Amino acid sequence: MVLIHNRWDLEKVYAMLAEKGASKLFAEAGVSIPKEDRSSHNNPVAESSTRYCSICMESMPENHMTRMDCGHCFCNNCKKFSLRYLLVSSSFILVSFFDLWIRCLFTYACVGWTENFIISIRHGKSRRIRCMEHECNSICDDSIIRSLVRERDINLAEKFERFILESYIEDNKMVKWCPRIPPCGNAIRVEDEDDMIWEVECPCGCQFCFGCLSEPHSHCTCSMWEMWAKLCDKSGTSNWKKESTKPCPKCHKLTQNDDGCDIVVCFCGKKLSTMNGTLVEEEFLGWLHTLSTARRFLSHSYVLAFYLFGDTFRNEMSEVKRETWKNLYEYHQRQLAGHLERLSGLLTSEVSIDDPNSKRISIIDQSIITDSLCRNLYNFIKNDLFGSLKSGPLQIAPYRPGGPLRAILKGSITTDDSC
């Protein structure tokens, strides 16, 4: 419960423990330290041992009751006792109408632990169910909730288990669901906060930015990409993508047929038909990954330039420095664009019958040059451009020639292989 309250940030918990002490840390999280053994439900006692329940206002056998860590004890199922209380109380002459109203309201509203847990789970409040005692902020123990609810409704108990698992993912900034639509059910976990800006690939093939869950957008920041996405929606770009492209069955990237042929080769190396979108053959082509990464890298550089040298960052650098950095930036872009064209031309040209290896060697050489230019542009952006901003350097995902970091499957939750 302490981890859930602090969004699973272990370093924050340690810092608060050292600063405030265990008692205050537990109190803020709604966790009580038990002073004695729990009663009844998990540790049955003799039938003759009784305890007063303030809900049904009777002394009940302790093996029908449960005491939480905070020390408050109520019946597991008070509903039948509250109906009995209604019948008994109606035979007495009440002092006033107000007394009658209070008794009736209290009788119908009061339920035992089990019913309270069931109502809370059905209303989506299963993560932090508090004690029923008035003004008690203690959180009820998950194991007790699970045990009591399972006796009444097994399906609801399983639903509670799912809620607890989802709380680990949704409340933990180090873990995020894969954003693929339809959902694949995988969750990606990173090791530390420095990895939160990484671009990752789920085992299902979906690639995304871990920071904002959008498509990979390095070397643009998440805020830049969000602004760009809104701008594209206004200009109709998203509608054009739906009408003119199809997702690759393997990597789910959008592919466009602009050569008039019904067979399209995706950047991941898969061939598919634009008529039905099915795979034609299985083949992995490493140079296509280089071409894909470099083209995406170059296209994102124009988005970065649009904001970095526009009005958004106008106050971050002087006009002279902006003009200097802009000229150098455009020089890197031209260099990369030129070699990309050469690489693309080599990949689409015919193979010489007399010397078939010459084309392969040329492609390898050009791929190395293209990758080097991408790396140089990335270093220029991260170290020179972002380093010169008055507000401080911006955070972007690291450059990876092979594309986003691939996650590996570990049990029921998918975790990033940086773990």
What does this structure look like?
- It comes from Punica granatum.
- Its cofactor is Zn(2+).
- This protein is α+β, with helices and mostly antiparallel strands and 419 residues long.
- It folds into 5 domains: 1-31, no CATH class; 38-170, Herpes Virus-1 (2-Layer Sandwich); 173-216 and 404-419, no CATH class; 248-284, no CATH class; 287-403, no CATH class.
- Helices cover 45% and strands 12% of the residues.
- The protein contains 13 helices and 15 strands.
- The strands form 6 sheets. A 4-stranded mixed sheet has the order 8-7-14-15, with no helix packed on it.
- Helix 4 (79-89) runs antiparallel to helix 5 (97-109), helix 11 runs antiparallel to helix 12 (319-348) and helix 12 packs antiparallel against helix 13 (356-385).
- It is elongated and about 95 Å long.
In percent, how helical is the residue content? 40-55%
Number of helices: 13
What global shape is seen?
A: elongated
Strand tally is 15
Q: Please compute the radius of gyration using only Cα atoms.
A: 31 Å
Oligomer: single chain
CATH class of the largest domain: Alpha Beta
Trace the largest sheet across and list its strands: 8-7-14-15
CATH topology of the largest domain: Herpes Virus-1
Mean pLDDT: 75
CATH superfamily caption of the largest domain: Zinc/RING finger domain, C3HC4 (zinc finger)
End-to-end gap: 24 Å
Instruction: Tell me what the CATH architecture of the largest domain is.
Output: 2-Layer Sandwich
- The tally of structural domains comes to 5
Q: What is the percentage of strand-forming residues?
A: 5-15%
Biggest sheet statistics: 4 strands, mixed
Assign the structural class, choosing from mainly alpha, mainly beta, alpha/beta, alpha+beta, or little secondary structure: alpha+beta
> SSE order, as H and E?
HHHEEEEHHHHHEEEEHHEEEEEHHHEE
Unreliably modeled segments: 38-47, 80-110, 259-265, 267-284, 412-419
